[in-house]
Write a structure and sequence with these properties.
InterPro entries: Amidohydro-rel (IPR006680), Metal-dep_hydrolase_composite (IPR011059), Metal_Hydrolase (IPR032466), Metallo-dep_Hydrolase (IPR051781), OTAase-like (IPR057744), TAT_signal (IPR006311). The protein is of the alpha/beta class and 460 residues long. It contains 16 helices and 18 strands.
């Protein structure tokens, strides 16, 4: 049976060297013997649970769930299974799909200025810790929306390290002086004699691109590296250095070129944007996922709905304190972005926007734990049921937009139904009545299953 013992207790960091990807892949098979072992049976029978299936408005009472391999096979009262099947008696507890988060940065676990001098292997070690912690908080699928973690994804998918299922944009694309440009002012850009790579580009966080030809090159390089969708910064940022919150980044032509490239790869373009102007331009040029959007107007919200684009929303990012290492200017921009949150959420509900639940917590492993505050902060605008649907079946629709670029195929996530991935949680308490039960995973999550494998089970 899989355990929840932290990786650090098994000493996997000793002797770590190389890039984030190299750290993740190298020698992992011997590092997690307990986790890497397959279950004795290919079937797991869970009985005596009340099920939130990700779509319905109420719990399915007193039923059972049969898992075969990594998929759900059946949901019905009084199911049976072979004698060698793993059996879990839920004791009347609630079972629901694993949580999903559509805006994360697994590799960003230090302050913004610490990144510039960080060793790649150190960042890789923290990324693996964050991946495990994310899974143990109940998140079984996430979108990583800026940062080169292809090696970490490979290691997780191979079963060498515990972590959620991940779709990745690979490196976010930034213009000179844009959100992803953290170069010192004394370092000229490459067009004026500077180095060909910035520190963040060398670490895989960003690609620098100016003008349509470079946008296309950056987009194509991301796809060559295995990205599942594309991400660019089209407006000012909270955590940026040179870009005030009010500016529009990238020209319409540059955005349209990147959106067109994503479409040719049968996937989509996600954009970082806060202001009304930058959000509207991005939507007009073909962006399909707006990350943040806090300061958009009613007319732009109407355009977003008309275009069928997604609004990837965060609350804890703006309502929590930024960790040490962020400047006063960055904290001031966070405050301005937070001021638009109520209007954006209200408009999104009014116009029936497609709302994704995400967190965007960065800066430290401790800050990342506040990811779970999304389930309580959002109650200012949404019912418990709406929030649970956002983190399950609604997020799953955005997940599916990567189409043939989705490395996990068209198997559904975020739902409890036959042929969906067997990602599920059994818990103390009923999140339909009180979402705060999800904010205390150590105490309240009895079972965490991802891909049919059990990573935590306190009901044995």
């Amino acid at each position: 049976m899989f355990t929840s013992e932290p990786l650090t207790k098994r000493g996997f960091l000793a002797g770590a060297a190389g890039s984030v990807g190299a750290l993740a892949v190298g020698g992992g098979a011997a590092l997690l013997p307990a986790r890497a072992q397959a279950q004795a049976s290919t079937q797991t029978l869970i009985t005596n649970v009340r099920v939130f299936d990700g779509k319905s408005d109420a719990l399915i009472e007193a039923t059972s769930v049969l898992i075969e391999g990594n998929r759900i096979k059946a949901i019905a009262p009084n199911l049976d299974a072979p004698a060698d099947a793993v059996r879990i008696d839920g004791g009347g507890r609630v079972l629901m799909p694993g949580l999903t988060d559509m805006h994360t940065h697994l590799v960003w676990n230090v302050g913004p200025f610490e990144l510039l001098g960080a060793h790649a292997d150190y960042l890789g070690a923290l990324t693996l810790l964050d991946a495990e912690a994310t899974l143990m908080r109940g998140y079984t699928s996430i979108r990583d929306i800026g940062g080169g973690i292809q090696g970490v994804i490979q290691a997780i998918d191979e079963g060498r390290f515990p972590g959620p299922r991940i779709q990745s944009a690979n490196a976010a694309i930034t213009m000179t002086a844009g959100h992803g440009d953290f170069r010192n002012r004394n370092v000229p850009v490459r067009a004026f004699g500077g180095p060909t790579e910035s520190e963040l580009q060398r670490l895989g966080f960003v690609y620098h691109a100016d003008g349509v030809p470079e946008m296309l090159s950056a987009a194509r390089e991301n796809m060559r590296q295995g990205a599942n969708f594309l991400k660019i910064f089209v407006g000012g940022a909270v955590s940026g250095i040179y870009d005030p919150l009010d500016i529009a980044e990238y020209s319409p032509e540059e955005i349209a070129a990147t959106a067109g490239e994503a479409e040719r790869w049968n996937t989509y373009l996600a954009v970082h944007s806060y202001t009304d102007r930058s959000t509207r331009i991005a939507l007009e040029q073909g962006a399909k996922s707006i990350e943040h959007g806090n300061l958009m107007s009613e007319a732009t919200m109407e355009l977003l709905v008309e275009k069928g684009a997604w609004l990837s929303t965060q609350t804890a990012l703006f309502m929590s304190e930024l960790p040490d290492g962020f400047s006063d200017a960055q904290k001031d921009r966070q405050k301005k972005a937070a001021e638009g949150l109520d209007n954006m959420m209200t408009l999104a509900k009014q116009y029936g926007a497609k709302i994704a639940l995400s967190s965007d917590m960065v800066g430290s492993l401790e800050t990342k734990a506040e990811q779970l505050k999304e389930f309580t902060w959002r109650t200012q605008w949404f019912s418990n049921l709406e929030i649970l649907k956002q983190t399950t079946s609604q997020n799953a629709q955005l997940w599916a937009m990567s189409g043939p670029r989705n490395p996990y195929g068209d198997t559904p996530i975020g739902v409890i139904e036959p042929e969906a991935y067997a990602d599920l949680l059994i818990m103390e308490g009923n999140p339909l009545e009180d979402t705060s039960v999800l904010t205390r995973p150590e105490a309240n999550l009895n079972v965490i299953m991802k891909d049919g494998k059990i990573y935590k089970n306190t009901l044995e």
